[in-house]
Specification:
By secondary structure, this protein is an alpha/beta fold. The protein has eleven helices and nine strands.
């Protein structure tokens, strides 16, 4: 996740000119994606994910959340569109035939839309849907989620839980201050991805617009911890949130401004530590 930072729409739209897509994807998988591991664990524990679980992960990216569910015995399918570099890493993690060994049963990685991840004829429907990319951090970051949920709902049975994730209150998310830098630098080309404070009912409103019924929620502490300042910069850049800033200015300036924004969170040993809280909502398909 790596802890996860923001929804991947900026990455899906394509990184800034000159960006090495493979390097960005690798930084995401090796540095940033693991940050939401505590949240994944909390959700899986609450929903008792195990051998009877048939999970469809929307916006699965590099697949860490899927890997954790599979390790609990779940059958998992991940679907994403336009994140080919991250999906390649998901296949490396989850499909061992990439390394010349036998593939695991019950695992699929799909490059496309939720409809492309429909169960094969005769297979049971999904009984858990997850959308682990956090919303509530950028303007319009939930707009595409409703369409994904509408497409995925027919692939699951009535009452199936759907997990949505969002940022907690800005005062409890240190990273919010760092994300403002992206908005300020991208001002000349400011668009739908601009930073905004998370709202209390972001997840509930998204569920309601998608025709889902809220059925419980929780908060999980997910600190963003990095070995050093360079790792923190690379991790933040890997989210795609700073691509507009790079396009509006240049890589060197963004690196400099980002490093300065991270400086207050450096500790005496050189590590970078930013406490954050994320919310999750469990909704049900009516």
């Amino acid at each position: 996740m790596t802890p996860t930072l923001v929804r991947q729409h900026p990455t899906h739209a394509g990184p800034a000119p000159g960006v090495d897509r493979r390097a960005r994807a690798r930084d995401w998988a090796e540095i940033q994606e693991r940050m939401l591991v505590p949240l994944y664990e909390a959700v899986y524990e609450r929903l008792e994910v195990g051998s009877g679980t048939r999970l469809l992960g929307l916006g699965c990216g590099a697949g860490l959340a899927l890997l954790m569910a599979a390790s609990r015995g779940a059958s998992v399918t991940g679907v994403d569109c336009g994140a080919q570099e991250r999906l390649a890493l998901a296949r490396e993690r989850l499909l061992p035939e990439t390394w010349g060994t036998r593939a695991r049963a019950g695992i699929r990685i799909v490059d496309g839309s939720p409809e492309d991840a429909a169960p094969a004829p005769g297979e049971p429907s999904y009984n858990l849907l997850t959308a682990f990319e956090p919303i509530g951090c950028a303007t319009g970051d939930s707009e595409g989620l409703g369409e994904q949920l509408a497409a995925a709902a027919p692939l699951a049975g009535r009452g199936t839980p759907v997990v949505l994730v969002g940022w907690g209150p800005p005062e409890r998310c240190s990273t919010s201050a760092v994300l403002r830098v992206a908005t300020e630098l991208a001002e000349p080309v400011r668009g739908p991805g601009s930073w905004r404070p998370a709202r209390r009912d972001d997840l509930e409103e998204t569920a309601q617009r998608s025709g889902l019924w809220p059925d419980g929620s929780g908060r999980v502490a997910c600190p963003f911890g990095y070995a050093d300042l360079d790792s923190a910069v690379r991790g933040m850049l890997s989210t795609g949130f700073f691509d507009a800033a790079i396009a509006a200015t240049d890589q060197e300036q963004v690196d400099k401004e980002l490093a300065e924004a991270l400086h207050p969170y450096r500790r005496a040993d050189g590590t970078v530590w930013m406490p954050n809280v994320f919310r999750y909502l469990i909704a049900r398909i009516p």
